[in-house]
Design a protein that fits this description.
Blueprint: H1 2-8, H2 16-35, H3 42-49, H4 53-65, H5 67-81, H6 83-93, H7 95-102, H8 107-117, H9 124-134, H10 140-169, H11 172-193, H12 217-243, H13 249-273, H14 275-278, H15 290-322, H16 326-338, H17 340-353, H18 357-375, H19 384-406, H20 417-441, H21 444-461, H22 482-485, H23 491-499
Helix pairs in contact: 2-9, 2-10, 2-11, 4-8, 4-12, 4-20, 5-6, 5-9, 5-20, 6-9, 6-11, 7-8, 7-11, 9-10, 9-20, 10-11, 10-16, 10-17, 10-19, 12-13, 12-20, 15-16, 15-19, 15-20, 15-21, 16-19, 17-18, 17-19, 18-19, 18-21, 20-21
C-alpha cells in the first residue's frame, strides 16, 4: 500500500517531470475534445442535414480514418524533430478543420473536414514519447497511464460538456468552433513551456528515416505484414464513402490503385531502410523482437479500438435503447469514457507494481472480454442505472488494458519509441474502423460479442510477449550506438540512409 501511495503522491505536484506530465496530458485532453466533438451532436447534425443512419456512420468512420496513417507519420516526425514542436503544430492545426466543420453547409464538407480532423487524434503518440523521456522505466506505466487516462478523458468531457457549451454558443457550430480555437491557443502555450528532455540529456533519434528500424530479417518481413492492414483499412473507408454516394465508382477504383501504389512505396522504404537487418548485421545487444510490437498492436486494436468505436456509438445506443434526449444520452454515455481518469493510470500502475508487464496485460484483456460480454446483454428491460454500471465495469478493463499496453510500448526500443508508439496507436484506429464497420451490418449485441472474442485472442497472444529488458530500472540504459556495432562494410549505407 505504501509503495502505491509513493507512486501517486508526487502526481499532485507541478514541478520537474510532473510539470511536463501535466502540461502534456492536458495537450492530449484538448486534442481529444476536438476529435470527439462530433459524437455528442450526431443526432442534431443528422436532423439538420437530413442524413441517413448510414451517412452518420460514415462520418464516424471519417473521424478516425486518417488517424491511421497520421499516427505512423507523426511517429516518424517526433522521433526526428521532437515532441514539443510536433505536439504544438498538431494543436494549432486543429483550429482549421474545426472551423470548416463548424461552418459546413453540405454533407461533402462535413466528410472532408472530419477526415482532416481525424489527423488530430494522432497527437496521442507524441505525448507517449515526451513522457518516456522524462520518466524512468520503473515509473513508466504510472506516468504513461496518467498521460493516457487523464488526456483520454477529453472524449468524456466532450460528451458531457459540449451540449452545454452549444447552448451558450448558439448551437453545435459554436461549440465545435470553440474547441478548435482553444486547442490552437494551448498549442502556442505548449511550444513555449516544455522541453523535449530534462536538462543535460540527449534526445535519442533513429539512425535512419523513412520506416521503422527493425533489427532482424524476420523483423523486416513482420513489418511488411504489419504495414499492409494500415493501407487496406483506408480502402475500407473509401468503400464506405462509395456506398453513400460520396465517391463515384471511377474515383473508388482510382483510390484503390493509389493505395496499392502507396503500399508498394512503403514496402520499398521498409526494405531500403532496413538493409542492415536483412544482412543480419545487428549485434545481439541491439536487437529487439518485432513480435512485441505485433502483440501490442493487437492489444491496442482491442482496447483503444473498441473504446473509439463504443464512444462513437454509445450516445445513440443509449438514446435508442432507453428513449433518452440528446443531452441525457450524451451524459449517460460519458460514463464509459469517464473511467479513463482512474482506470488507465491504474493499469499502468499495476504494470509497474506486479513484477510482470506481460501477465498484467494478459489478465486485463481477459477481464475486458468479460466486460463486453456483460454489455452484450444490456437491453431496454434494464434500469438505466444498471446499464451505466455495466458500461463502467466494462470500461474499467478497457482503459486499464490501454494503460498496461502503453506501459510496455516505450520500453521496446527507446530510439524508435515514437514510431513504435505510432504503429501501435494506428492499430487502435484499425480496430475502431473494423468494429464500426461491423456495426453497420449487425446489432449492438453482436458488436459487443465480437469485441469480447477479439479480447480473448489478444489475451492468449500475450503468452508470447517478451518482458522488455530493464523495464523496472531506476533510469534509462545508455542508447547503443548501432552505427559502430554494424559490420564496417555496412556503415556507409547506414550513414547515407540516415541522411535521407
Amino acid at each position: 500500500m505504501s509503495q502505491t501511495l509513493d507512486r501517486i503522491r508526487p502526481l499532485l505536484s507541478f514541478t520537474g517531470r510532473y510539470r511536463i506530465l501535466h502540461l502534456t496530458w492536458f495537450a492530449f485532453f484538448l486534442s481529444f475534445v476536438v476529435w470527439f466533438s462530433f459524437a455528442p451532436f450526431a443526432r442534431s447534425i443528422g436532423d439538420e442535414f437530413g442524413l441517413s443512419k448510414e451517412q452518420l456512420t460514415v462520418l464516424a468512420l471519417c473521424n478516425v480514418a486518417l488517424t491511421v496513417p497520421a499516427r505512423v507519420f507523426i511517429g516518424m516526425a517526433l522521433d526526428r524533430w521532437g515532441p514539443r514542436r510536433v505536439y504544438a503544430s498538431i494543436l494549432i492545426y486543429a483550429a482549421v478543420p474545426s472551423l470548416v466543420f463548424a461552418t459546413a453547409q453540405s454533407f461533402e464538407v462535413l466528410v472532408a473536414s472530419r477526415l482532416a480532423l481525424s489527423i488530430v487524434g494522432a497527437g496521442f503518440v507524441v505525448g507517449i514519447r515526451m513522457v518516456s523521456e522524462w520518466f524512468p522505466p520503473r515509473e513508466m506505466g504510472t506516468a504513461e497511464g496518467v498521460y493516457g487516462g487523464w488526456g483520454n478523458f477529453g472524449s468524456a468531457a466532450a460528451a458531457f460538456t459540449l451540449p452545454t457549451v452549444a447552448a451558450l454558443a448558439g448551437g453545435w457550430r459554436g461549440a465545435i468552433a470553440t474547441t478548435g480555437l482553444m486547442a490552437a491557443a494551448y498549442g502556442v502555450v505548449y511550444l513555449r513551456t516544455v522541453t523535449d528532455t530534462p536538462e543535460g540529456q540527449i534526445y535519442a533519434r533513429p539512425h535512419r528515416q523513412g520506416a521503422l528500424e527493425v533489427t532482424s530479417r524476420g523483423g523486416v518481413l513482420g513489418l511488411l505484414a504489419l504495414n499492409a492492414p494500415l493501407v487496406a483499412i483506408l480502402g475500407l473507408v473509401a468503400w464506405r464513402l462509395h456506398r453513400v454516394g460520396f465517391l463515384t465508382g471511377g474515383v473508388l477504383v482510382g483510390v484503390v490503385v493509389a493505395l496499392v501504389a502507396l503500399l508498394a512505396v512503403q514496402s520499398h522504404q521498409i526494405v531500403r531502410v532496413n538493409a542492415p537487418a536483412l544482412a543480419d548485421a545487428y549485434p545481439d545487444e541491439d536487437r529487439y523482437p518485432l513480435r512485441s510490437v505485433a502483440i501490442l498492436c493487437l492489444a491496442y486494436a482491442v482496447t483503444f479500438g473498441s473504446e473509439l468505436a463504443v464512444v462513437s456509438m454509445l450516445p445513440t445506443f443509449f438514446g435508442d435503447t432507453f428513449g433518452l434526449s440528446t443531452v441525457a444520452a450524451g451524459m449517460t454515455a460519458s460514463a464509459y469514457a469517464f473511467m479513463n481518469l482512474g482506470a488507465r493510470p491504474m493499469g499502468g500502475l499495476l504494470s509497474d507494481l506486479m513484477g510482470s508487464r506481460r501477465r498484467t496485460l494478459g489478465t486485463l484483456l481477459a477481464g475486458l472480454a468479460v466486460g463486453y460480454g456483460l454489455m452484450a446483454i444490456v437491453g431496454a428491460g434494464w434500469p438505466v442505472a444498471a446499464a451505466v454500471v455495466a458500461c463502467m465495469a466494462c470500461s474499467l478493463f478497457v482503459q486499464a488494458g490501454e494503460g498496461a499496453t502503453y506501459a510496455i510500448v516505450p520500453l521496446v526500443k527507446r530510439r524508435v519509441s515514437g514510431q513504435i508508439s505510432g504503429l501501435v496507436g494506428a492499430y487502435g484506429n484499425v480496430g475502431a474502423l473494423l468494429f464500426l464497420t461491423l456495426l453497420l451490418f449487425t446489432g449492438p449485441t453482436t458488436f459487443f460479442l465480437v469485441i469480447g472474442a477479439s479480447a480473448i485472442v489478444a489475451s492468449f497472444a500475450t503468452r508470447w510477449l517478451p518482458e522488455p529488458e530493464g523495464s523496472f530500472a531506476a533510469e534509462h540504459a545508455p542508447e547503443h550506438d548501432v552505427s559502430l556495432a554494424l559490420r564496417p562494410a555496412l556503415r556507409p549505407a547506414v550513414a547515407m540512409a540516415g541522411a535521407e
